[in-house]
Amino acid sequence: MFTEITEDNLNQIVEDNGTVLVQFSAGWCGNCRIMKPKFKKLSQEHEEMPFVMVDAEKYPESRKLANVDNLPTFAAFKDGKLLKQFITDNDADYIHETIETLENLTEEDVLKDEELDVV
After folding, report:
1. Helix segments in 1-119, DSSP class H
2. N or C: the chain end with fewer CB closer than 10 Å?
3. Structural domain range at position 59
4. Domain of life here (predicted)?
5. CA angle at residue 109 from 54 to 32, to 5 degrees?
6. Burial, 12: exposed, middle or buried (Cβ in 10 Å; 0-12, 13-18, 19+)?
7. Single pTM value for the model
């Protein structure tokens, strides 16, 4: 499921949907525009996981949720907890690897206070 959202509902979506992958982007960001169709395609391959995009320029408060400094930034959340925040240059494979890691997390992994390792 792919959805473009506002910062008003970002917190709720992250907290209420188990595993969520977020792309922070902006209209002026070339790499953001390049990654959007790749991100959408990945969402179709993993329909059970919400994929959301938020315009971090339009909704600057949203950046605080994942300490976003650069765009595009991707953030993986599980049960409201930030597990991984990363920047990638048009590499959908890295995002796919992150998704696979998220899908295989145990409850114990989520309770650890450390960032995910993705090869």
Report:
1. 7-16, 30-45, 92-103, 107-111
2. C
3. 2-111
4. Eukaryota
5. 20
6. exposed
7. 0.84
